[in-house]
Amino acid sequence: KNSRQAAKNSSQELRLPERFLQTYIQRNKEEERRERERGIKMGFNNKKRKSNPSDGNNNNNKRIQKRDFKKSNRSNSWDKEPKGKRPARGGGKKNNGEGKYGATEYVRENEHFEAYYSAQKICSSDEDFANLMRVLKTDLPSSFRINGVGNFAARIKQRVKNEFATLSGAGLEDIKPPKAVEWYPDSGAWQFSYSRLQLRSVPQLKSLHEFLKSGQEFGSITRQEVVSMIPTQFLKVEPHHKVLDMCAAPGSKTFQVLEALHRDFESYDPSFGSFHADAEGGKAELSAKMPTGFVVANDADLKRCNLLTHQTKRANSPCLLVTNHEGQNFPVIKGEPGNAQDDFKFDSILCDVPCSGDGTMRKAPDIWARWHGGFGNGLHSLQIKIAKRAAQILKVGGRMVYSTCSLNPIENEAVVMSLMKATNGALTLVDVSKELPDLKRSNGLRDWQVWGKSNRRWNSAEEAHENNEKVVASSMFPDKEFLDTIPIENCVRILPHHSDTGGFFVAVFDKVRELDPEIETQIENEANGNESKKSKTREFSKFKGLGMAEVKCHFEYPSSSSNGDSGDQIKLSLTVEQPKPPKTKYSRDPQDGTLLFLNAHGQDQSRPGRKGFDGVAPVNSPDVVDPINEKYGIHSLQIEKNCVTRTAAGSKPKRVYYVTPNLRQYIAADTRESLRITAIGLKVFERQNLNDDKDSYFGADSKVLSSCNYRLNQDGLFLTLPFMTKQAITITIPELLQILKLRGLALVENEPVPDGSKFTPRPSFTDAETRKHVESCSQGSLVCLLRDEDVQKLNCSRSEFAITCWKGKTSLNLLVSKVETEHLLEKLKAHTRDVNDDA
After folding, report:
1. Per DSSP, which regions of 484-560 are E strands?
2. How far is residue 56 from each of residues 45, 70, 222, 597, measured CA to CA in Å?
3. Lowest-confidence range among 245-249, 404-408, 585-589, 788-792?
4. The pTM is what?
5. Does pLDDT of 580 surpass 80?
6. How many CB atoms within 10 Å of residue 184?
7. Which residue, 646, 649, 651, is CA-closest to 683?
8. Strand, helix or coil at 503?
9. Cα–Cα dist 699/107, whole Å
10. Residues noted as catalytic
11. pLDDT in tens, 441-455
12. CB neighbours of 443 closer than 8 A, spacing ≥ 6?
């Protein structure tokens, strides 16, 4: 169109062939359609839908983040329809306790599956293979892992051993009681074979059922398959490591990594204000205990990233960053060129890649009917790309763990072989036979077969392509000559009949040198989409942040002496002029030289792939920082240096998140804003909305609160508490129990009750010392702590029972969720029980 206008202005007649214009228009329409489909797939549905007044949600935009659901009137609970409204999946009519709709009866037979794995010789003998098939056709036992390593975790282990490991009685005669997973350290994981129906109906299992429900909700346990716990044990995470989980959702392995990162901090018990009395010594102590490393948890699916955030939220870690990228396209953050301090390659990388999942058939029996000989072929090339990207961004001396929940050598040994070929000696395949010695396992295969969807074996990729099996690639076939040069037997295959688990595969790599430059270039080209047929999904990371390119079109028209039918002779040439990238300015701390995060990240929603993502901005405005420091006496925390917000730059932050210094530097080094961030850090403060006369929390005076309208957050209390010198009171154990049970206490003798309210007046504080402490604090957010003598009596940490409260004019109210409150009550009962037993 612009070319036509330019030609018209220059008094030239532009004659383009009609087919040229139609092709151009059609290509534009096709590109728009493909971009729209990609956006819907990734969760960015720009197309508006009709509002449905009946569902209480008139928001036309597709809701993809957790906060969006708070706008709806729907309750946060599962809406069970009456029986008969929804048919059972698969047509099953039996109600065996799996809900009101019955359970599907699956046929657990597949002759092609048996023939395929019998030919692969994954078992040592025919008898061993028969045992494997027998176990595969049974249901998978349930399992859970006890979170943490502190005193409360030890009490949970003791309770499981004493109360649940000896269960017996009617209905349990043929079922083994729960047992500890033999290879997991310190009896931290347990396995049991009770069905859902038995857990709900057998009286002896009622306490176990309640324990599983409440423990998962509180965060004291994690329901996780046994084999899923293996990869992180081989990763050997240390508190100073920078760790990347490339395909992290739903987050159980990420939770394990965070536990390993925080293991030195678990036993740390800073008291109130302990870092203020000796600021330098306190900060040095914090640096020694707080992990200096961080975890980047990534997933390609935005909705699964939100699930990942929910799962890992229970870890309360300021070292966590959640991102949304395809694993093979994960951005490379380099920092300032030539500065050795800016080393952002990862010490540990976990590649639990997408796979066919035929090792999960015991818990997903629908796979039996869908399985065919080429079931594991479709993801082979993607798995290689993800593994190669991980090798690229792994630090020399670092460790990478590749894992799948598949038994298929095409997704396992073939990928390992291709990765070792591609890296040309930069990686070594580690022998882990002496690690986790009680773990039963098989070695990697040196030979395997390649089958196709037609359930026949192929001898070469060319033969498969001639028979319309286009997915089969040459990299799937064993290269016996190359396999003789690598210890492929160092791979670990877990078979279901080894320890009554699911199937799994693990390969552990150490990086001994940098990749060759041509291999680096090849991996980067694949990440940028230069070798991909789906060029529409390219991220063009090299050009991000460089501004718009100028494209000049030059037409050469036929001479005026030629006839009018010479439109095909028009010549078109394009010149792309890309401006030179501006020189990036890195801001550094003058004291230690570390990078400072001073500019907002990812705020531009107009950039491709940014819709639906909130940016990250530093919290360094004196209007925000100074009132918080003054209110809580928390200057040593350095909010202006280590805190961020997801609120748009220029607006007053709604929530304030603390990040560790190294994670802060990682974000600051991403000057081109390549990272798509979905969650970051640990929430420590939240802005309180104020009304004209009183605030929305329990009648505090808005004039008093106007000086600082940020309240403390319970999740981040263990981090902020040692820096605080104001707004904290000490209470007795009975007073703590009353606050937890009644959700607060009165500050006056007769607590006022609003007209028409069913609210029951609560008692007030009876201890004179506590009253004095409460009166010394200003209205708004404060912390309640147990007294020193009570801490010693319960043999607990001071921060273990610290709670955030809100002081109003007439009452002190609890600012802790109901779930967390129940958890605190449970912990307090456990500590009290131990004290009584000792007495």
Report:
1. 492-494, 504-511, 550-556
2. 20, 11, 34, 40
3. 585-589
4. 0.80
5. no
6. 21
7. 646
8. coil
9. 62
10. 405
11. 999 999 999 999 999
12. 489, 490, 491, 492, 493
